[in-house]
Structure prediction request, 195 residues.
Amino acid sequence: MKFELPALPYKKDALEPHMSKETLEYHYDKHHRGYLKKLAGLIEGKPEGEKSLEDIIRSSDGGVFNNAAQVWNHTFFWNSMEPKGGGQPGGDVARRIKDSFGSYEKFHEAFTSTGSSRFGSGYVWLVRDGDRIRCLSTLNAENPLLQRSTPLLTCDVWEHAYYLDHRNERAKYLDVFLRHLVNWDFVAEQLKKAA
Prediction:
């Protein structure tokens, strides 16, 4: 299976002023593209080359896993954001947040705290486990696919995701992500797929 770099779902300047065009240029064009290129070189002519990205993630380790998971994680991250996004969700997403966290404000606090407390590089996720949703932090390239949780939303907390815009203020970056960038329609779609 030949993997290609998926196009961003918006222009590189569409998330400004909350995420700069420069950040997206480095993050998407250098990091995401770099993981894809490394993955292609690692699986060329091997059995993994015939698998889906998800199957590679679930069945590999080392460099193959790291690059495959980073390709998948970044694609999910880009789709977790939209221009003029953020704020409180509506519908089923709002109901599930209230049922699982007590309120949107408590969810906001839990998501920000979970992402801020990740030592080093990784991701913070909103995942579905059965009828509940919860926040989850993963290290480096790990993701909820390994834990049989359904990913609904992610925010990349590797420093290259926010340093140009927020320096070392990860909590501020996560707050901006929730207030101005989250694509709640994407989250709702993931919930429907998991039903």
User: Anything to note?
Assistant: The radius of gyration is 16 Å. The chain has a mean pLDDT of 96.
